[in-house]
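Hi everyone,

Forwarding the result from last night's run.
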Amino acid sequence: MLKGIPKIISPELLKVLMEMGHGDELVIGDGNFPAEAIACRIIRADGHRTPELLDAILKFFPLDQYDKAPVVLMAVVPGDDVETPIWDEYRTIVTKHYPEAPEFKHMERFSFYERAKQAYAVLATGESALYANIILKKGVV
């Protein structure tokens, strides 16, 4: 145990976050995300929701200040009649840690998958909300 590290952050996740360099990306995948098929590094966070993980991660994870949109969401597939209230939760959490509120980019599903393949790691969660996948681009401290 360490002081100041949220209990939801596993030792494996902390190690990966420390290893990442500026410009590296972390995918936080929902329970439906094909994490095992996409990730070169996978961290399991089964049973945890994405908002709680996002809040804990952003306590010490710098978003890329040189990228206009260092936060990327998977866009709803056209014709899919789904509400995405979790995106409002993400906006609230990001604004809490970054009052200047960086932009969020929305990517088409298969483009998101391709970008996720290039990510440093995928954090596989137990999130049940649909379209809850998010990519964070790391900046500098």
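The two ends are 23 Å apart (CA to CA).

Cheers,
N.
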